[in-house]
Amino acid sequence: MMTITRHKVTLYGKKECCLCDQAMDILQKVALSVPFDFEKTDISDNPELLAKFGLTIPVIFVDGVQAFKYRVNEARLRALLHADQA
Fold this sequence. Notes:
This protein has 86 residues and is of the alpha+beta class. Helices cover 35% and strands 24% of the residues. It has a four-stranded mixed beta sheet with strand order 2-1-3-4, with helices on one face.
């Protein structure tokens, strides 16, 4: 019996960020066919995260590893989410 683990995708961004909105659109589209656990973290009120990611948002991690910044490549995201499900 094969166990399929759900990947965890984390988006670091903030409100009123058009690139963050575009990233969310792609994440939601991909989630329709490849379910994953999702967490969105607003960096606005966190000085440490703001210092780390403030100039590069959105930043998207897959399973704790940074996968994208600024823009999400839908095909690459799908490949990452399918990587260990073969």
